[in-house]
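INFO batch 0412 | record 1 of 1 | parsing
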Amino acid sequence: MNHRLLISLICLSFLCGAGFAGCDPPPMKNPDRTDPAQNAQKQQSANYPDKMSTRVLWTVSGYVRSDGAQLSDDKARRFLFKPLDIGDSWIAFDGRTCSNVSFTRTSVPARDYFKKTFAIEPEALGIADETVEVFTTSCGLPGFNEYVRLRDRRLIVRLDGVFFYFKPAVDF
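INFO prediction complete | emitting tokens
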């Protein structure tokens, strides 16, 4: 019986030493080498201005095409699940980044805003909020000179007649 217990302990220690069974992997032997995930993160963050991360705060979760939309349904569908990140002074979307962006936030009645700005009822877009926050920016990325934030933290960005819904990727 003791012989079986000893063999089991030896097998368990071998598995832990190899990084299995939930044990910590052995430390890297060459401290100059970096983890491949860190290399990918460094390459990805090179696309962003200083002090920016590669975090994803929103992703495109849906869209509604308005009458006369210039963007086809097929092209609009290609935006689904694309990440969006917005910082204090930048916006990053679809492989492009706006730097030194200024933001102005205004709370407005949803019905008035959508009817005056886009000639559409908020209900046609599935919006039940009485008020929305409108962000006006200095960003030149298509659709991001002005966007809407709903009470549930989703964003709406209009691009070529298509209203894209951005769902928060983080919950806080």
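INFO post-check: Residues 58 and 169 are 5 Å apart (CA to CA).
INFO record closed
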